[in-house]
Amino acid sequence: MPARSIANATISFGLVSVPVNLYSSAESKASVSFNMLHKKCGGRLKQQYICPKDNNEVVERAETVKGYEFSKDQYVVFTPDELKTLEEKSTNMIDVIEFIPLAQVQREYVDKVYYLGPDKGGDRAYRLLTEALMDTGRAALGQYASRGRQYLVLLRPVNGILAMETLHYADEVRSTNEVPVPEGQVKPQELALARQLIEAASNDAFEPSKYKDTVRERVMESIQRKVEGQDITAEAPAAAGGKVIDLMEALKASLAGVKSEGNAKVKAS
Is 208 exposed, middle or buried (0-12, 13-18, 19+ CB in 10 A)? Predict the structure, then answer.
């Protein structure tokens, strides 16, 4: 079944315009949602807005306004019309500003990924841009105005099509210097064993189909048992791993385990 377009846009670079359709690149199934119910009758509960300043009065949505907290407990209130003036005008234009080496884009900047397909009349320009990016090893960096916001985006070729990644702006990405790491040295023997462990457990291909979300599968199986009227009993907790005291011994044991698992796979095949 063909993917359904979620939006239309136009890529603009130089004097070239490429009309495109946007598609979701993935469908997340990781989250299993539960609803809040009334314990007494099983009815689904509704959320309410409560004003603690006015004797916990229940406030209807029609009586609410939006405000920005500029100081502790001090707000400046905006009307709906004023809020609209703050929004970026949605032009649905993807304005390419520059072309950069794809390898230079750090992965921590990536937020979401969309696929782009050519819209009516954009086939030739779409193929040209895709092949040019593949040929040069570069990606197109630009900005995209949509839904009242301005996004920083990266266009890159993926399996013969274009993917658009929305990126975080520089001031949104935390510096790695904020992560506390005590100073110290790596012992050569430990490094050698760690490299052997990595080599022994390495794969030259990225194969995500090998992995499944076993937690979600277990949750869904438990939900089905509840639907069928069965009780769910807690499993015995897995034994916690002991604290690593000797790093060398831990590396040796890990390496032996990986080699043993690899030999078992060879025999099984």
Answer: exposed
| Contact between 175 and 161 (Cβ < 8 Å) | no
Structure tokens at 139: 């990606």
Please tell me whether residues 124 and 12 are part of one structural domain: yes
160-184 residue pLDDT tens: 999 999 999 999 999 999 999 999 9
Whether this model's pTM surpasses 0.85? no
pLDDT at 234: 72
Which of 15, 20, 4 lies closest to 120, judged by CA? 20
With a cut of 70, say whether residue 266 has pLDDT above it: no
* Exposure on the CB side of residue 132, measured as CA atoms within 13 A: 12
DSSP, collapsed to helix, strand or coil, labels residue 140 as: strand
CATH number of domain containing 102: 2.40.290.10
The helix/strand/coil state of 73 is coil
- Structural domain boundaries, residue 162: 7-25+92-172
| Amino acid sitting at position 61 | R
